[in-house]
Amino acid sequence: MQRTSFRKVSMIAALLAVAVCASGADKESRPVESAGKLRVGQAEIAFSANENGKLKMAQFPGAVEQAYKLARQRYGEGTPKVVLVQTNVRAGIAKQIAFIHDKYAAGAPLYGVGTGSDSYSIVGQSVFLGKKQPGMSVLFLGGDITIQPAVVTDFVMPVKDWNIKDEAVRAAEKKKHAEWGRELARQVKPVAGKTNVFLQLGTQHVPRMSWVHVGTTEVLGEKVYIAGGAAADHGFIFDKGKTVPNALLGILISGDFRVALVGSDKVPEPKMPTVLREKLTDVTRALGVVPELTMYFACVSWRHGLEQQKQAVNEVLGTAPLFGAGVTWSTWFSGRSIIPALTVAAAVVAYVWLRFSKRREET
User: Fold this and answer.
1) CA distance linking residue 351 with residue 43, whole number of Å
2) I need a surface site. Which of 157, 159, 182, 331 has the fewest CB within 10 A?
């Protein structure tokens, strides 16, 4: 399919915000025990590359170790519940990440996504990488939360053209992908009395992620917030340190959180930095705190005004960790039927932000 000029299209943007609630995950109906502390250690790094984006392999291991070392320092002692990695290097290269992971992660399981292309960006507090700028982001996550992973392999779509014209083939693929989504969601169990957030990731390029999403929401229901992004179909996931192609990854995060969800539809690309700043401000005002962690899933086409977007993030979030990547031509989100799953064209993008915040004692 010929791609539409990104400068002429609108964007779909959304913010999903989660903060620890002092009196319960849902004040009106779900009282919980006292909230505990979320522990976060996060770092991102740009890898050395030539002007064409080709990775300089001699510097690669040292750069990965530098990111892991910094994430470990920020997390502190102890074993995190999970380590998440996002990178835009190839699977064969990414295998080296697992070896360095074992040195710093103290036995924590490694999950994550390889976007499948260096056209997909890595973003963080210190870097907003553009096209053909390889990098990675690593997140140590622990504290008083529960983590449940889920993996579906052999997630293969035999039809190569993702813009399927044959309606019968499309209907069959939708049905098959929805069942894959159900299979993924059945592997986790939302924790009663807690807020549950499900990250749906994997090699689910548009429109496959929306078809999978039908199945995950059917199983998990409206009280589980679902957010995520899609790597390219030739990307991969990290499953306990192994790089696995053609796979779906789900991570259920459960804890004492209060959730705020805001979004903007049809945002012209040149206005993204301005709208991003406005929505971040809306979220922090709604929560009354600056989030302790922000997860960011975006489309490759979001790369308009990178420095202005980074400035907006830094000014609103301060030094709070930002973990994210530009993953495929679209992302999507859902939450209690506020906004349905999106099936979007190559020229449209959805932004998803997932943010956690420390509990503040009531006075």
Assistant:
1) 21
2) 159
Contacts for 330 with CB less than 8 Å, ≥ 6 apart: 206, 209, 230, 299, 342, 344, 346, 348, 349, 350
CA distance 216 to 204: 13
pLDDT digits (tens, 9 = 90+) for 72-116: 999 999 999 999 998 988 888 888 898 899 899 989 999 999 888
State pTM to two decimals: 0.82
